[in-house]
């Protein structure tokens, strides 16, 4: 049958409309298939779409009564009307202010540390690479976390400030937003899973349009962590472990579901407070600690101690522990940066594979004969 020109044109138009609809459906399905590419984190979700990403931050602080949604808009990206109510951030960022040292390694790993223009209390930064930028004035001191220098931040005009809150009352963050500055609340410090905490590199990957690089870096960390787990698979948790030190009149031990306790469990150690429910820490008296941990074989002390003598000087009662008498005391906090910042606090959250290897080296040294401790140091 031969179609006349009018019918032929109408037929071609129908085919084009069907094709466009299929292409539109294909794009929609592609966005849905990508979905949330965050696996281990409990507080972060990133949904990738064509031209933009949706970032969701939940449980940003203890007993939080709110969560946050941010839209990362790429050049020429079109944001659906349903998402217009959320804070929109143009990416890739050209400048950024972060407020936690745990973010510094992520920036360096992605090679975007030169985009950092401000940081609160810059002495806390230990990384040699970022310290050089601070020393030549490329990164400005913007005050303290609880009292940021608003005038300096307005003058710097960063594309984004990545901050964190400690409770449901955050006037400083509210003031920053009222001043027209873009603020993103992050929650890496609330993560209890070692890999979940490290996975926040994917947020910075999304902010700088380096998602693939972030995923590759994180996949390597997961691979190394799992390899370390495999090395102790057949080992028994025989070494009893005391953790922490006195702070004023209390000794704070890590609870059984905390970040620290997970490392001890994965390293096949017998952590004496592993059965205490919850995250964070539990404050106990010295007498409670001594009663339960006097005979512990190993002690992971909290503090910047360099020697057993220095540890004992801070509290003479420490010498009553068997781990002290047998010189089997370690600390992860003795290695400091040029201005006194603690390297462990800055780097450990982004490199849980190295933290786990340190613990395995302490409790099962025969499994890692050629490994040198990264963070931990034995007190002599």
Question: Can you put this structure into words, describing what you see?
Answer:
The protein has 380 residues and is an alpha/beta fold. The chain contains 14 helices and 19 strands. The strands form five sheets. A five-stranded parallel β-sheet has the order 7-6-5-10-11, covered by helices on one side. Strands 15-12-17-18-19 form a five-stranded mixed β-sheet. A four-stranded mixed β-sheet has the order 1-2-3-4. Helix 7 (201-207) runs antiparallel to helix 8 and helix 8 (211-231) runs parallel beside helix 14 (352-363). The radius of gyration is 25 Å and the shape is globular. The termini are far apart.
Largest sheet: spatial strand order:
7-6-5-10-11
Structural class: alpha/beta
Number of strands: 19
The helical percent reads: 25-40%
Query: How much of the polypeptide forms β-strand, as a percent range?
Result: 15-25%
Number of helices: 14
Q: Which blocks of ≥5 consecutive residues have pLDDT under 50?
A: 1-33
């Amino acid at each position: 049958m031969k179609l006349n020109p009018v019918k032929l044109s109408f037929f071609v138009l129908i085919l084009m409309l069907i094709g466009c609809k299929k292409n539109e459906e294909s794009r929609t399905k592609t966005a849905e298939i990508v979905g949330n590419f965050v696996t281990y984190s409990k507080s972060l979700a990133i949904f990738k779409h064509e031209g933009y990403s949706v970032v969701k931050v939940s449980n940003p602080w203890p007993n939080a009564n709110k969560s946050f949604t941010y839209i990362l808009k790429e050049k020429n990206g079109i944001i659906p009307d349903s998402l217009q109510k959320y804070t929109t951030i143009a990416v890739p960022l050209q400048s950024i202010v972060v407020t936690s040292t745990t973010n510094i390694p992520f920036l360096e790993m992605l090679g975007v540390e030169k985009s950092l223009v401000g940081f609160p209390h810059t002495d806390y930064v230990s990384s040699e690479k970022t310290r050089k930028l601070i020393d030549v004035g490329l990164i400005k001191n913007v005050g303290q976390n609880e009292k940021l220098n608003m005038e300096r931040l307005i003058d710097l005009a960063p594309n984004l400030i990545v901050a964190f809150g400690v409770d449901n009352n955050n006037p400083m963050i509210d003031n920053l937003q009222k001043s027209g500055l873009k603020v993103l609340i992050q929650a890496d410090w609330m993560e209890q899973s070692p890999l979940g905490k490290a996975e926040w590199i994917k947020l910075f990957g999304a902010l700088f349009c380096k998602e693939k690089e972030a995923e590759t870096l994180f996949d390597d960390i997961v691979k190394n962590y799992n390899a370390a787990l495999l090395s102790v698979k057949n080992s028994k948790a025989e070494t009893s472990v005391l953790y922490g030190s006195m702070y004023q009149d209390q000794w704070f031990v890590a609870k059984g579901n905390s970040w620290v306790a997970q490392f001890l469990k994965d390293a096949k150690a017998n952590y004496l407070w592993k059965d205490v429910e919850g995250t964070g820490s539990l404050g106990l008296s010295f007498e409670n600690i001594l009663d339960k941990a006097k005979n512990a074989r190993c002690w992971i002390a909290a503090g910047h101690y360099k020697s057993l003598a220095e540890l004992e000087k801070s509290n003479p009662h420490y010498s009553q522990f068997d781990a002290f008498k047998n010189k089997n005391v370690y600390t992860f906090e003795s290695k400091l940066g040029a201005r006194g910042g603690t390297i462990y606090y800055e780097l450990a959250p982004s490199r849980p594979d190295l933290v786990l290897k340190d613990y395995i080296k302490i409790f099962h040294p025969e499994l890692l004969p050629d490994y040198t401790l990264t963070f931990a140091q034995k007190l002599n």
